[in-house]
What does this fold into?
Amino acid sequence: MQDFSSLDGAILIDKPAGPTSHDVVDAIRRRFQIKKVGHCGTLDPNATGLLIIVLGRGTKLSEKLMGDDKVYEGTIKFGETTASYDSDGELTGSLPVPPMTLEQLNADAASFLGDQMQMPPMVSAIKKNGVPLYKLARKGIEVEREPRLVHIYNFRFTRYEEPLGDFRVACTKGTYVRSIAHDLGQKLGCGAHLAALRRSVSGKFDVAEATRLDEVLKLTVPELERKVLPYLRLAAA
It folds into this structure.
């Protein structure tokens, strides 16, 4: 049987708003001098929550873990559209929000359940001819994108107070929650964008098991080793 070190595996990070997922990878690589570090599913800079960081030989499992279903919680702001479909982007439109109850909002949300072809936003890491779309978007260039098949298991609002609605969505990998917010706004005729997002679940792992990034970076190597989910547990997950 192959021998694994105590740092071959993964650590669950509760990512704060601000840094990119790659920033988190870099910070852990530098702090603990680990050569191979990766992440399993990008979170936008202003998104928070569960980020699975793979270490050492654990990086071999990144594709497997990245393919797991996800659960997100967040807030959608109705009446405003942005270029990036979230609060980071430039405001592109503003319209009155029609009168809605929580029940009416959930009836519209239910129409998103199941398989759907989703158009990725221009401000995304998807590449066109080797260039990430967000780099083209920064130059004001919009290109044709291929819609992608995603599956929405659950999409429900828990609170609505105009113009903000709090929601929870369970979906397959590669789903852009920003696009769900944008598409719902288009369906309602008033526009919308994603105001806040937090990933709470990825596969069998929950953010409740995760450690805040600032706390991880204060750990000693032995303390980090005690938090690492071992390779064989990940392989079986």
